[in-house]
Amino acid sequence: MKHDISIQDHIFLIILSGGISPREYGTVAKDLVNLPQWKPGMPVLIDYSYIDLSKETGKDAQQYVQAIAPFRAGLGNGRLACVNTNPADFGLGRIWQSFMESMTDLEVGIFYTYDEAVRWLTEPDQ
Q: What is the DSSP annotation of 55-81?
């Protein structure tokens, strides 16, 4: 799996591509929290549009979240938006969301479009 992390309009944008594994997913979290610009709780958008999730199932979701769990404090309690353009991947995202919200302090949103995700990340807390 490849990942690219950039900052756009005060949002950390992570673009994933290729295949994926829990170990590599943990590496993404580690790379994010080690960035000098990162502060716990900052908004994050993960774009899954270029990732191959065809071999993943709902049973795998917990393993991915467990790979991120060591970075719980470093991630903080901000919002994490995920863009899943494929309906099957969107469903996997919802399963992953339930594990993320129970095993981290993040508020997670799953969206079909980039614009919806950015809107949610930038709207005031309710």
A: T--GGGHHHHHHHHGGGHHHHTT-EEE
122, amino acid identity: T
Q: Taking phi first (over 0 means left), then psi (-120 to 50 degrees means alpha), and beta for anything else, what does residue 10 get?
A: left
The pLDDT-based confidence of 53 (bands split at 50, 70, 90) is confident
Q: Which residues pair with 50 in a beta bridge?
A: 17
**3-class state of residue 110 by DSSP:** strand
pLDDT of amino acid 58: 82
pLDDT of residue 54: 82
Please state, in angstroms and as integers, the Cα–Cα distance from residue 30 to each residue in 24, 41, 112, following that order: 10, 15, 26
CATH architecture of the domain covering 2-122: 2-Layer Sandwich (3.30)
Per-residue confidence (pLDDT) for residue 126, from 0 to 100: 53
